[in-house]
Amino acid sequence: QVQLVESGGGLVQAGGSLRLSCAASGTILSINSMGWHRQAPGKQRELVADITKGTGTNYEESVKGRFTISRDNTKNTVYLQMNSLKPEDTAVYYCNAEVQLPWGRGNYWGQGTQVTVSS
């Protein structure tokens, strides 16, 4: 079994910063890609950013230059540094990981953490 535990969400004023963390635990051989998605009320879940096992990254267009994704493979942890936050960034943010297990590969999600940006 694999668990992803997120932390770091909260309420911040526009222009402020937050750092999200997501730690994976369980019977993990290695983690391939890790990423952050978000879902605002009434909208579909969308990819915010992801990072490969190396350092390859991919960002949703609206967060480029403001958000930075990184990971610590020794801790099975992925981070999302969010700067210059805007009210439209308000959403529940979910961590996702593609994990290599002893018996195969699995895709897992965290429980979500709320990010609210006030204007």
Summarize the structure.
With 119 residues, this protein is mainly β. The protein has strands spanning 2-7, 10-13, 18-26, 30-39, 46-51, 57-59, 67-72, 77-82, 91-101, 104-109, 113-118.
Mean pLDDT: 96
Q: Which structural class do you get from the secondary structure elements?
A: mainly beta
Q: How would you spell out the order of helices and strands?
A: EEEEEEEEEEE
Categorize the overall geometry.
elongated
Total beta strand runs: 11
Tally of helical runs: 0
Rounded to the nearest angstrom, the distance between the terminal CA atoms is 40 Å
Strand content: over 45%
Give unreliable regions as ranges.
none
Radius of gyration: 14 Å
SSE order and pairing:
Elements: E1 2-7, E2 10-13, E3 18-26, E4 30-39, E5 46-51, E6 57-59, E7 67-72, E8 77-82, E9 91-101, E10 104-109, E11 113-118
Parallel strand pairs: 2-11
Antiparallel strand pairs: 1-3, 3-8, 4-5, 4-9, 5-6, 7-8, 9-10, 9-11
Note the main attributes of this structure:
mainly beta, single chain, about 120 residues
What does this structure look like?
It is a single chain. By secondary structure, this protein is mainly β. 0% of the residues lie in helices and 61% in strands. It has no helices and eleven strands. The strands form two sheets. Strands 2, 4, 5, 6, 9, 10 and 11 form a seven-stranded mixed beta sheet that branches. A hairpin with a 4-residue loop joins strand 7 and strand 8. The chain is elongated, with a radius of gyration of 14 Å. The termini are far apart.
